[in-house]
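TA notes, week 10

Several of you asked for a full example with nothing omitted. So below is the full record: structure tokens for the whole chain, then the designed sequence directly under it. When grading your own attempts, check the secondary structure regions first.
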């Protein structure tokens, strides 16, 4: 029987966010917004979902007077992403 794909990572935008964070030390909100071509509101909601699941860490701070939100992938998130990719490979019979 096929293992169900992780529904949290099966969303196109959340998968894109996780893919980006797998390949960088950290990414700020503006960078993620540009790379995913998402709106700020939608991106915010998806980052909250990933953060609540423990897949990413979201750090809010300031650069001068400008707010800056920086995201990093957690060990739990890295493991979940790798499992998702493995499950997808099995699913596609690769």
């Amino acid at each position: 029987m096929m293992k169900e794909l992780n529904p949290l990572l099966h969303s196109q935008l959340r998968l894109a966010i996780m893919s980006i964070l797998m390949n960088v030390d950290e990414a700020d909100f503006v960078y993620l917004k540009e790379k995913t071509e998402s709106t700020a509101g939608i991106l915010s909601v998806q980052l909250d979902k990933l953060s609540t699941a423990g897949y990413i860490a979201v750090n809010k701070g300031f650069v001068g007077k400008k707010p800056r939100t920086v995201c990093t992938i957690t060990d739990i998130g890295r493991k979940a992403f790798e499992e998702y990719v493995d499950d997808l490979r099995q699913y596609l019979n690769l």
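The first strand starts at residue 27 and ends at 28. Use that as a sanity check on your answer.
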